[in-house]
Amino acid sequence: MSVVLNTKHLSSFISEEEYAAIYPQVEAAHKQLEAKNGPGSDFLGWMTLPRDYDKEEFARIKAAAAKIREDSDVLVVAGIGGSYLGARAVVEAVKGMYHNELEDVQAAADRGEAERLLLPVDAYFRDHPALTVGLREERAARNGAAFPWRGADGTYRVYGPAGDFLLLGELERGRMRTVKSFYEV
Predict the structure, then answer these.
(1) What letter would DSSP give residue 35?
(2) Which of 85, 98, 171, 185 counts the most CB atoms within 10 A of its CB?
């Protein structure tokens, strides 16, 4: 399948010169996506979704939808625009935050491993050096944005100025980006 960009209506937003100036970057990004070798290349399943998807999962979803249609008069989904967090908030409000983990916790307790579950999350990343950022960097991190930082490239445990563990971050060429966040929203 081929996609063609129609630039007819772009003229009021971007000049031909601006478009021509960014075209090499767009083309490079496209090639990186197609080659699946850039940052985030392990999250490109969406590129083949129209033809490659979990057909068994899709069948389960369709069956669940049919059951909901059959059993319900109204279905309310709380969403926040492209994210599952709204629906997750409703599920957690109804079932509790750890409803999927209770069996795992009980099994660990039965094996005498409950203390392992009580470690602070940053303890699992002690092999990475820690750094504390300022308020500006914390704000950027909490908004999912990369921020400038001086230091050696690598993976770091990042803490806010008050000492809260914010994230596991990857510092590369002076930019800290989030690998996994651990703060509450």
Answers:
(1) H
(2) 171
In the sheet with 130-132, reading across from the earlier edge strand, the strands are 130-132, 154-159, 165-172, 175-181, 147-148
- pTM (2 d.p.): 0.40
From its phi and psi, is residue 131 left (phi > 0), alpha (psi between -120 and 50) or beta? beta
pLDDT digits (tens, 9 = 90+) for 74-99: 877 666 665 666 767 777 777 766 66
Residue type, 181: S
Task: Report the distance separating Cα 103 and Cα 86, nearest Å.
Answer: 25
Q: What is the DSSP letter of 68?
A: H
Whether residue 176 contacts residue 159, with contact meaning beta carbons closer than 8 Å, is answered with no
pLDDT of residue 73 exceeding 80:
yes
DSSP, collapsed to helix, strand or coil, labels residue 134 as coil
On the 0-12 / 13-18 / 19+ scale of CB atoms within 10 A, 23 is: exposed
